[in-house]
Design brief:
By secondary structure, the protein is an alpha/beta fold. 40% of the residues lie in helices and 16% in strands. The chain folds into two domains: 5-168 and 354-375, Glycogen Phosphorylase B (Rossmann fold); 171-350, 3-Layer(aba) Sandwich (Rossmann fold).
Length: 376
């Protein structure tokens, strides 16, 4: 029996996040008898998706994080890894600017297919000057450049060529369910009353997601509507800080935490509006999922316009006050109180954001590049 072609996906860690959910949705929908995914991660702890990856036949390899202080040591460790695993002919790196480091080592070892994939549209974190310089080294070391949106591509590749590969979702999984009893049961478990208006966010608790501003928005909104809750799905390094801020505002009875969950689609169905106050995003998968679920979305104006797939999306500036955001939520609430949420999955599918077709497009991209490399 012919063995599948193994493709190495290079990521930080396979926790619950937009990029990781996108990769897993692709992974679940490919023919794994022909193509198999393995993962090179940069954390020693296990990620939320690790068990599922291994159950699907994938392998997980671990290196230490990329840090400026251990730049040369990291290159040495990565070179050693590639020399020990010469089976990989296709490397798909999702590390944004740090993809340059990975693909440079891969190029020096003559790995033929070297893919960079941009999932952001701004440089985040310290060492901004260094990060901006590293970006310039992607193009000389990659053989294919992908981006989740036009903005993400322009940010990572500058004026160079790239292809937009749409972030996609499983529309059947994220459609609004017909089973209202299932929703009621989960609301009871979480602590949501039938009369509550639920704001929500599914996101990692990190700086970029700007949870503090979201809490301020909710604080203003709950003054307008006493029957309101904020549902926060996810986990992350800033969770304790955010929880402390909620206590300062005396909102602990109204803000609900779920932690990381394996069924985010069910929690989207509990919400009445999805509010994302991020400082920057590439092309957030979760906003496609929310629209597929028929959920109105209010987002910061830093998020690419390409995410506006349906009539459910609204924008607001982060320079606007939390009170202004709260008033806008009230307006959106009135506009969408009679929506038939179950109908929106068809719009997402018709606009080619369904994983069933896009998973095959990615596999075709891998295979065409692989076949071309065999000729050289």
């Amino acid at each position: 029996m012919t063995q599948p072609i193994r493709i190495l996906q290079v990521v930080t860690i396979m926790n619950l996040g937009g990029l990781e959910s996108f990769l897993m949705t692709i992974y679940r929908n490919i023919d794994r008898s022909k193509v198999q995914f393995d993962f090179l991660v940069h954390r020693q702890e296990r990620g939320a998706f690790d068990d599922e990856i291994e159950n699907l036949g994938g392998k997980i390899f671990r290196l230490n994080p990329i840090r400026p202080a251990r730049f040369f040591q990291y290159q040495k460790e990565l070179k050693s890894f590639f020399l020990d695993h010469k089976e990989y002919k296709i490397i798909h790196s999702h590390l944004n600017e740090n993809s340059a480091i990975v693909l440079n080592v891969a190029k020096r070892l003559n790995i033929p297919i070297r893919i960079a994939h941009s999932h952001a549209k701004a440089t985040a974190g310290p060492y901004k000057f260094l990060r901006e310089f590293i970006k310039t080294r992607i193009y000389p070391n990659s053989t294919l450049n992908l981006a989740c949106s036009e903005d993400a591509g322009k940010w990572l590749y500058g004026g160079k060529d790239f292809d937009v590969f749409k972030n996609s979702v499983d529309v059947e999984k994220f459609k609004f369910p017909q089973n209202s009893e299932k929703i009621k049961t989960l609301k009871d478990e979480v602590g949501i009353d039938s009369k509550d208006f639920v704001m929500g966010l599914v996101a990692r608790f990190s700086f970029t997601k700007n949870h503090i501003f979201l809490i301020d928005v909710f604080n203003e909104y709950q003054k307008l509507n006493q029957y309101s809750k904020l549902l926060l799905v996810g986990d992350g390094e800033l969770k304790l800080e955010i929880n402390n801020y909620i206590k300062e505002l005396n909102l602990q009875e109204k803000v609900l935490f779920t932690g990381n969950v394996s069924n985010p689609q069910d929690y989207l169905s509990l919400m009445n509006i999805f509010v994302m106050t991020s400082f920057n995003e590439g092309m957030p998968v979760v906003l496609i999922e929310a629209q597929c679920n028929g959920l109105p979305v209010l987002m910061s104006d830093t998020i690419p316009a390409e995410i506006e797939i349906t009539d459910l999306t609204y924008r607001e500036s982060l320079n606007s006050s939390p009170k202004h955001w709260a008033n806008k939520i009230n307006e959106i609430k009135e506009l969408h109180k009679d929506d038939h949420r179950e109908l929106y999955k068809t719009i997402i599918k018709d606009k080619n954001y369904d994983i069933s077709s896009n998973a095959q497009k990615l596999i075709d991209l891998y295979m065409s590049n692989y076949q071309e490399s065999l000729k050289n």
